[in-house]
Amino acid sequence: MTIMTDDSCLITLLFVDDQVLIANDKNNADYMFRKVSTEYEKWGLKINMDKTEYLRIGDQEDPKLEIRHIKETKEFKYLGSIISQEEASTKDTQSRLQQGQKCISILNSLLWSSKIKLKTKMTIYRTIVEPIMTYGSECWQLTAKDKKN
Fold this sequence. Notes:
By secondary structure, this protein is of the alpha+beta class. It has 4 helices and 7 strands.
């Protein structure tokens, strides 16, 4: 979804009731928040300020958004992926690996059963475990350390 301004196009990610506004400076962030709030109010919707936060990436100064007091965060989860201030995707990849390990431990009795064929076990792994571990991997920015792990 995009928000048009006089001289630019501002970006927002929207999935069901989760929304991310992407702005390159304080003025655009303020504008986008006001615009989204106004549009939501027309539909009788209200932004839950207890769940609203902002993530500043890069070495920019703290924007101190003027609209309302919005708390700053160092990371947040959006559609299951961890978005953080770090340039690399280390936290997200670690989280995915942990989720995969948890899934394997849940499926442990199936995967080690002598009553189930190897081909079936491989299918279970490829259709259940692998997607959990690789979700969002197209966007990962890996460090050399991440690649070793």
